[in-house]
Fold:
Amino acid sequence: MILLQSMLLGILKVIEVLIEIEIFAILLRAILSWFPHLRIPWLFRLLWVLTEPLLAPIRRAIPPWRTAGLDLSPLIAIFLLWAFKVVIIYPVKISLIYGGGP
Structure:
């Protein structure tokens, strides 16, 4: 039982780190979009590959022309990732740590 709890906690930690990396990549992409003269092709390609699968569906649901030209997809994506951590990951971790024993 303790081995299973440890494995699940490890998996949850990996998911949590991946969410943090995604949030960092979204923030970096948004900030770098304000400075078009600082184009670093490999970095933009990497950020595009990491963030576009999450941002594109949000952008299709709420196109920038509906929000006065502002692309709110990074803000919404960060909020959704944060909410996933708070609503799903943290309660499961707490139940595994404090409520998982006999």
